[in-house]
From TrEMBL:
Keyword entries, A-Z: Chitin-binding, Disulfide bond, Glycoprotein, Repeat, Signal
UniProt feature, compositional bias: Basic residues: 282-292
Name the record gives this protein: Protein obstructor-E
InterPro entries documented for this protein: Chitin-bd_dom, Chitin-bd_dom_sf, Chitin_bind-dev_reg
C-alpha cells in the first residue's frame, strides 16, 4: 500500500483490532527485540527537546519485517522490509502506536505511554493549533470548558457540556476534580464549597441547590467534592426532596422560566402527548399467534 494512503488511514485512526492476549504477546516479544534498533548517536550536554531530522540509523531491524518504535522519539518509527530500514515520522501531533509490529498506526498521544521515549519532532503550529493534529486547551487559561480539535492545522472549537472542563491529560471533557486543570477546579468555577457533614450523610452524596440558577444543583461526592449537575428543560431542583420537578410546582422557582418559555410550551413539556400505538402487524409477544 502506498505511503500516501497509509497516512490517510493513520490520520483517520483506522485500527485492525487484536485481542488483548495477542497484543500482550506482541509487546513482550518486542521488549526483547527492541534494543537492536538503538541509534548510533553522540550525546551532547545541550541536547534539544526536539529530535533533528538528520540522524544516522542502525542498519539492523529487530525483525526482518514490521513497524518498530524509535527508542527515544515517540512520533518516530521504522519500517523494516527484508531487513532494510526506512525511518518515518507520524503527522505532527500524532505518536506511533506500537501495539503490534504488523500494523502501521499513528495515534493521538492520549493513552499511549511516551514516558520512555519523550522526544517529539519540531511542532508545526497554526492559529489555535500548537501542532497540526490533536486536542488543545484554549489559550486563555481562564476559559476552562472550551478547546480546539485540530486536523491538518485547521481547528474546530468545541465547548464542553455544562459543569465539565477540558482535560489536557485525556483530551476529553471531564469533571473539574478529575481534569485537574490549573485554575479550573470546582472552587474557581462554581464558587461553591460542600458543607461539612458527618460520614453517614457524606456516603449519600448529598445535593444542594444552585442559589443562582433553579435548573442546576450541586452533588457533593463523598460529601466533599462538588459537581454541578442540572435538571431537564422546564424543571428545577427541589431542595426539599433533593430531586428535579417541574419548576411551576416549586414555589421559589415557579417563575424561573418566564421570559424563556411560554405557558403553552411549559404545558407541552409537562404533559407530552402520548406516543401513538403501532398499528397493523401481528403481536410479537411470546405465545401470541397470528389470526387464522
Amino acid at each position: 500500500m502506498k505511503t500516501e494512503v497509509l497516512c490517510v488511514l493513520i490520520c483517520l485512526g483506522v485500527v485492525t483490532a487484536l485481542t488483548r492476549k495477542q497484543e500482550a504477546l506482541e509487546q513482550n516479544r518486542r521488549k526483547v527485540a527492541l534494543p537492536a534498533l538503538q541509534k548510533k548517536q553522540q550525546p551532547t550536554a545541550d541536547e534539544e527537546e526536539y529530535e533533528e531530522d538528520e540522524e544516522e540509523l542502525s542498519d539492523q531491524c529487530p525483525e526482518p519485517n514490521g513497524y518498530f518504535p524509535d527508542a527515544e522519539q515517540c512520533d518516530k518509527y521504522y519500517d523494516c522490509r527484508d531487513g532494510k530500514v526506512i525511518e518515518k515520522l507520524c503527522p505532527d501531533g500524532l505518536v506511533f502506536n506500537d501495539f503490534s509490529p504488523q500494523h502501521e498506526k499513528c495515534d493521538l498521544p492520549f493513552g499511549i505511554d511516551c514516558s520512555k521515549r519523550p522526544k517529539l519532532q519540531k511542532p508545526q503550529p497554526s492559529p489555535h493549533c500548537p501542532r497540526m493534529h490533536g486536542y488543545f486547551a484554549h489559550e486563555d487559561t481562564r476559559i476552562c470548558n472550551t478547546f480546539y480539535y485540530c486536523v491538518e492545522g485547521k481547528y474546530n472549537m468545541i465547548t464542553c457540556p455544562e459543569g465539565l472542563v477540558f482535560s489536557e491529560k485525556t483530551g476529553i471533557c471531564n469533571w473539574p476534580d478529575e481534569a485537574q486543570k490549573k485554575g479550573c477546579g470546582s472552587r474557581e468555577l462554581f464558587n461553591f464549597t460542600c458543607p461539612k457533614v458527618d460520614e453517614s450523610v457524606a456516603a449519600t452524596h448529598p445535593r444542594y441547590p444552585d442559589t443562582e440558577d433553579c435548573q442546576y444543583f450541586y452533588v457533593c461526592v463523598n460529601g466533599e467534592i462538588p459537581r454541578r449537575s442540572g435538571c431537564k428543560l422546564g424543571q428545577a431542583f427541589d431542595e426539599r426532596t433533593g430531586k428535579c420537578d417541574w419548576a411551576r410546582k416549586i414555589p421559589e422557582c415557579k417563575d424561573w422560566y418566564k421570559g424563556q418559555l411560554t405557558d403553552e410550551e411549559l404545558d407541552a413539556l409537562e404533559n407530552p402527548p402520548p406516543k401513538p400505538k403501532p398499528s397493523g402487524g401481528h403481536s410479537r409477544r411470546k405465545g401470541a399467534k397470528p389470526p387464522t
